[in-house]
Every structure is written in structure tokens, then in C-alpha cells.
Amino acid sequence: MLKRTSQIKQEMLSLDESFDRLQLLRDKYKDKTAYILATGPSLGNHNVNKLKEFLSDKFVLGIKQSYDLYGDVIDIHLMNFCNYKDYNYNEDTIVSWIVYMQNQPYYILQNNIKCDFMMPLVRNHAGHENTIAYRRDFDSLLIDKSFERPWGSGIMYESALPIALYCGCKKIVTVGWDIGILDSKNEGKTHIKYDHFYSEGVDGEKTKYGDNVFKTPVGGSSGMSHDETRMVVDSTEDLHKFLESIGVELNIVSDRNPASDKIKRIELDEI
Fold first, then answer.
1. In the chain, where does DSSP find H-type helix?
2. CATH architecture for residues 3-270
3. How far is the C-alpha of 74 from the C-alpha of 36, rounded, in Å?
4. Within 10 Å of residue 188's Cβ, how many Cβ atoms?
5. Does the reported pTM lie above 0.85?
């Protein structure tokens, strides 16, 4: 975790509103590459201690369960109520929430769930044609355009990329972002149970959570439809074009991400 993150976190605690707290992040990491740790199976390909060492002086955003492995080096933890579980937080971690039902903010506050700011999800009640992936309106990733976050589908489009861009990063590297497997046998299915690093294992060893770890207290769910996955995959060439147009480079560290081959694949030892 970077020293500046601790300083920003302390400033956030003096403010009451999510929007005001979020504004403290604007361009604060413009000299840094943003490393986004997702929860796909390929995150488990890495030796945890070696990756922690590599990330120790980097700007790191961690999606949900990645915090269990890399909490010591994660600057901003990205949360929603899909596959929700509790975490043992470092006091300096900045915790961001996407909320997509009216009762979720109240649940967070009433249950004293760690949250430094929350952003409301919009366009999520009228079909997939309202997602960023379907519309390809990637300028809506920019938080400067709206504090409200359009439906992605998925936290990468809804929160991870928007916050990295808002922080001023001109290079973004995803680790463990695998999107999902496109399999014709899943066509038409409403939800598909994709594997994550914690079901396939980490560094060659099985790492599974207990049966009662995940909770669905207020609208939580898991899995994406085959159509959602296809839309995200098909949208990534336009994502690449948009990021390139605003001077941002996106690299992927994954041995199975089916995104456009226009997006550069790298190994961490190349950096």
C-alpha cells in the first residue's frame, strides 16, 4: 500500500458525503500504473508472496475476494453485493462500493460494513441493451461525466476501470481478469457459475472458502448470463479503441481472457 493512500484515507474520514470523498482521488495517482486484481482463476497462477513483493510499491485496486490474498498491498478495495463476504481490513484501505438496490446503502450503514464511499448503479433495470458493453458508450466510464455508474455488466466496467481512470492513471494492468468462458452449451442460460481463483486453487494448491462464507443479504447474486459474457468480450475491441483515444494503455495478465487480441497480453516479469 502506498503512503499517499493512508493520507487520502484520513482526509476522507473528515468528510461526510461519498461524492466529496471520491473527489479526493481525482488525479492523485497520475504518476502510477494501476494494477487491478480481479478474481478469475488465473489470479491463482501467481505465487502470492512474489506477487505481493512485486506490488508492494505499486498502486493496486483489488476486486472483492482478491483482498483475502493481497489485502496488505491493496490501496482501494472494490465491492458490491455479488458473492459478498466479510473481510478483515487494514485500517488504511479505501473501500469503494457499487450499490444497485435502494436498500443496500442502508444495509451497509446499519451493519457497520466498511465503506469509504459508495456509487449508485444505474441503467440496470431494463435489459442488457442498457449496459456499457452493449452500447459501447465507453465515455461513460469517466466519473467526471457522472457520479452514477452505468451497468457494465460487471465490476470491471462499473467500478475498477472508472476509478483507475479517475485517479489519473495512464497505464492499467489487469491481473486475474478472465471475463468468463464462452461455451455454446451455456447459450440462453440466465446465470452461469464461473470458477474463481478460490475454487480452482492458488499457486497449485486448492484454496476454498467454507460453505457459509458467501452471503446474499440484500440483492446479492453470482454469475453472469452467457449473453452478458459475450457482450463484454465483444465490447473489448471498442474498449481498447476508447482507452487509446484518451491516451491510456491497457494490458492483460491472464492465460485465458477471451478479450480482443488488440489488447496487449503481458507477463509480470516483463515489467
1. 3-12, 18-23, 48-55, 66-70, 104-110, 132-135, 155, 161-166, 197-200, 226-245
2. Alpha-Beta Complex (3.90)
3. 9
4. 8
5. yes
